[in-house]
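Lab notes, practical 5.
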Amino acid sequence: MSTEIKNLKDLQNTEYGLKKLFADAADFLPLLGTDYVELYVGNAKQSALYYKTAFGFQSEAFMGLETGVKDRVSYVLKQDKIRLVLTTPLTKDGVINEHINKHGDGVKVIALWVEDATKAFEETTKRGAKPFMEPTREEDENGYVIRSGIYTYGETVHIFVERSNYTGVFLPGYKTWKSHYNPETVGLKFIDHMVGNVDWNEMNTWCQFYAHVMGFAQIISFDDNDISTDYTALMSKVMSNGNGRIKFPINEPAEGKKKSQIEEYIDFYNGPGVQHIAVATNDIVATVSAMRDRGVEFLYVPDSYYVDLLDRVGEIDEDIELLKQHGILIDRDDEGYLLQLFTKPVVDRPTMFFEIIQRKGAKSFGKGNFKALFESIEREQALRGNL
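Output from the prediction step:
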């Protein structure tokens, strides 16, 4: 790992800037941040209500019949720097229907903000990326946006978004979505990382893809000795762009006595895809408390986890009893500590979920919590009959 990494203790919840932190990242695109995440869902209107109510998102933009689009409808939600796009087909056939039939509700697009979408497309495709969308100029009275796209693992795609010449609400073709119902936010700030699950022996292939095709660097690696319980195991490597704003852990199954969470995901998603979206907060207790009150269900953490917690992680600012009350996990690395908690799946299939994370200097991903976390997931798998 590069010695150029800045002291993240000086930053509010690890707010990454544009300065290069990881020297090993070629960073030839370069990426400025996550622009939006688009989910293909069975009912966008109801999904939008769920994310507004339970996660505190606000209405931003809309596209559908009222804007002249006949084959799909999209609702755009925003909370601080996080933007979700929920898309549902309006016709009986087509690629969106196929995606939902095969995968259920899930992430189709991880859109990345760039200065030059044409250059990003050329740089990645000449290195072997499969094209999804040729550079396309989209414009309206508010200016223009250029987008292009490539495939990554499974049917997931990256769309490069160049929006420096656009002043509209989201993208050309969208209109402002005015809604009487805009509940209070829960304090979510930005996407910290997004985790992809891939099949047996595919992790290194996709890590090499991000290194060679997109100029990322591997910053952390976990093997089955790090991520295992008495029954299941997995392996993971974390890929990051140079400025640390885009981080993609890639998971694959490892041999165990029973079926791992990655295998369960692959079985029900019918292939590789985005397992979870980690979103940052500056006050995890307040955020989790608000989300729980609004109906979000989190994984259960037994009281025994907290018995010798301070011996394991050292002094922390938070009240242990309050963390215990909410089931929040804590881990420490050389730079500081982090607090994290995971929702149960937010869709009907046991596939996609969210992680709520607050970093207080730590750059790691909660290695000390892996055993407790995966035992909790195993309890849920057993209830579903999938362990």
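Observations recorded by the TA: The longest strand covers residues 31-40. The chain has nine helices and 17 strands.
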